[in-house]
């Protein structure tokens, strides 16, 4: 009896120690992440000794381009991909991301072929097709979905910060600051992502760009309606006159009301959006995990003509489903 009590106490002590350790590590990781998120990258580059030209090029290296010479569907995909890379805030350039995806896909294709040969399968058309599908799923689709997720999180943070930035802007105008000085104040007071974005606007104005053009470029980079309303308000005020501080204060109130309605819509549609994410991600994870854990499950039938035809058909259905889910969950408020 005494031995059992000691044993139970020992197990409880191990559990408590493990719990405290994980809690401490989690708290340190959360604090470190909060510090990184709160850092204004532009101000960090300036403190590091970067010149205005260097930080301007570094922060804008991933901005979406026009690609006017491309066909419509391909152009939309490329612009969306570039916008996701830019909004995600990663330090890699677009060319580096594409190169990493291509190299990763090639390596995974070679690894998949090695797995197929190791399991005793012949390198027929079906086997090569299956290896290619695995490489594309793990080397392209999963990183792309991760980029989209990061970009969505930063866009959400930008939407939360924008009304606060307008309030600071209004207070700066009412205390006598000109528009350029009020924008420069935002670059010092606001965290990323909006702090560095208004810093880019300030740099463009310093280089001689028009305020409206600089703000329109920021709205195009982030593709947010709140920013477009801000640009329209400034343009109308510049042409017709009026109290800019009062206009922006009313705009801030409208954006907050719109954000409140949008959050209600998101709450009501959260189940559908989560279902959309699961239906998008789960087939890819299931296939990649299944191929890695039990490759013979696929390789034994990979060269069957029926399997080849059905796999191509399923890929087409997956793409159609992905586009349909995107349209169904892309809510406009």
Automatic annotation (TrEMBL):
It comes from the Bacteria. Its main location: membrane. It is found in: Cell membrane. Residues 166-288 form the Type II secretion system protein GspF domain. It is a multi-pass membrane protein. InterPro entries: T2SS_GspF_dom, T2SS_GspF_sf. This is Type II secretion system F family protein.
């Amino acid at each position: 009896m005494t031995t059992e009590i000691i044993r139970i106490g020992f197990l409880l002590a191990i559990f408590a120690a493990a719990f405290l350790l994980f809690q401490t590590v989690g708290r340190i990781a959360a604090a470190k992440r909060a510090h990184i998120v709160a850092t204004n990258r532009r101000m960090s580059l300036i403190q590091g000794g970067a010149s205005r030209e260097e930080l301007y090029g570094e922060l804008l290296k991933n901005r979406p381009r026009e690609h006017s010479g491309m066909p419509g569907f391909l152009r939309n995909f490329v612009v969306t991909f570039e916008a996701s890379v830019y909004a995600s805030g990663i330090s890699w350039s677009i060319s580096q991301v594409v190169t990493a995806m291509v190299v990763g896909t090639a390596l995974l294709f070679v690894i998949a072929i090695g797995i197929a040969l190791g399991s005793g399968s012949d390198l027929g058309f079906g086997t090569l097709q299956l290896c290619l599908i695995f490489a594309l799923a793990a080397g392209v689709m999963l990183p792309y979905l991760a980029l989209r997720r990061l970009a969505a999180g930063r866009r959400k943070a930008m939407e939360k910060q924008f009304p606060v930035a307008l309030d600071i802007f209004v207070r700066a105008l009412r205390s006598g600051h000109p528009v350029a000085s009020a924008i420069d104040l935002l670059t010092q007071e606001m965290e990323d992502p909006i702090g560095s974005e208004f810093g880019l606007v300030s740099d463009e104005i310093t280089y001689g760009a028009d305020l409206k053009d600089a703000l329109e470029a920021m709205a195009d980079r982030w593709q947010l309606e709140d920013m477009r309303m801000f640009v329209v308000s400034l343009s109308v005020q510049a042409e017709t006159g009026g109290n800019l501080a009062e206009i922006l204060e009313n705009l801030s109130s409208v954006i907050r009301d719109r954000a409140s309605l949008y959050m209600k819509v998101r709450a009501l549609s959260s189940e559908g959006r989560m279902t959309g994410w699961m239906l998008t991600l789960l087939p890819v994870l299931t296939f990649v995990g299944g191929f890695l854990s039990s490759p013979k499950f696929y390789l034994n039938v990979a060269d069957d003509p029926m399997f080849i035809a059905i796999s191509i058909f399923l890929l087409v259905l997956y793409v159609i489903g992905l586009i349909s889910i995107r349209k169904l969950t892309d809510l406009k408020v």
